Every structure is written in C-alpha cells, then in structure tokens.
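User: Can you fold this complex?
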Amino acid sequence: MTDETTNSLRDAIQEAISENPVILFMKGNPEAPACGFSARTVAMLQSIGARFAAVDILPDPRIRQELSAISSWPTIPQLFVDGELIGGCDIVSEMYETGELAQTLGIAPPANGGPAGGGAPGEAPPLTIENRL
Amino acid sequence: MPATPEGLKERIEAGIPGAVASVTGDGHHFNAVVSAAAFRGLPRLAQHRLVYDVFGEELGDRIHALSIQTRTTESEEMS
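Assistant: Here's the predicted assembly.
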C-alpha cells in the first residue's frame, strides 16, 4: 500500500463525514448489520425516524484504521452528526434513553402530545468508500 | 493469557486516578461501569476515551468488545 492510497482513503472518509449531516460507520449495512453493536445503533436511529448515511467498514480493514485515526475512537460503530463524532453504541444508547439523540438530530421526540413532523425513516443509500478510490 | 473482568477492573482503576470500576464479561465481550472524579466536567466522549486509552491496541484484538458506562463520582453520590 502506498502513502498515496492511504491519503486518498482518508480523504474519502473525511469527505463522507463532512458531506453527510448524519453518517454511521458500521459493520455490515443497515439492512444486514454484521455485529450486535452496529445492529443496535441502527435500530435506535431507525426507531426515532432518523435519516442517515451508512458506511460498511468491513470490505477493507484500512477503512477502520483510517477512520479511527481521524476520530481517535477505537471501536465500531461510530456516529457522526454535522461532522462531529457523537460516539459509539454505548453513548448513542445513553442519548437514546434520555431523548438527547433525537434532540441532537433535530427530531421532535415521539408522542409527547402535539403532532410531531416525523418524516420517513432513514433511507439514505449506503455509501461505499472504497468505490471512490 | 486471556483477559478477565478482574484484570480489566484492576487496569482501569490503576489507569484512571480515583476510578472505581465494575466489570463483567466472558473473556471476549466486557461491560465496564466506571465512576471517577476525573470524569467531572468532561463530555461523555472524553470520559469514554479515558477508559479506552487504558487498553489502547488491545481493543478489538485481545479485548474483542468493551461496553462502557461512565459516571462522575458526584452523580453517584446524588443518586
């Protein structure tokens, strides 16, 4: 692997993070998560009707290496909102339970009296970083 | 040598000053509840990073998965 390849992969990841308001790096994809932590995170996002882009890190181990180098976060999944790392499954779980997750994503909390403009559940197409190289 | 909940607990408590950890796990997947005064005033992300930093490269490798819940010592007293 050349330095050039590493750099363009890192750039592609960085670009995906800045171009997508909500993006989840996970094992597998939202339809078929390949890890319980990724599955749980997807389920929480979907249950509050969040729209999010998803990247499967499994096809190439360098995706995970570069992602962790960018985020200083060792584990997968990783959720980014507006270019900022929110956290992994544990933090998303805590935020889901306190209602902070919906708040961070700008989604009205469900059925707290009054109609909440929900929007369709997240159907953004999964991105594949490696195809952009 | 396989990782044990007791081993992880000791290392967290040694690695983060004043930390008290409760760790469960099966040798691969672990769950750690960590209270520390050092967490005070830090965002959750930074609190979790302090715990991850104790294990570095072992995460995802020797320690397959580590779930973390952090508490500041203060909020523990309040509950």
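Residues 75-79 of chain B have pLDDT under 50 and may be disordered. Residues 5-70 of chain B form a domain with the GMP Synthetase; Chain A, domain 3 fold (CATH 3.30.300.90).
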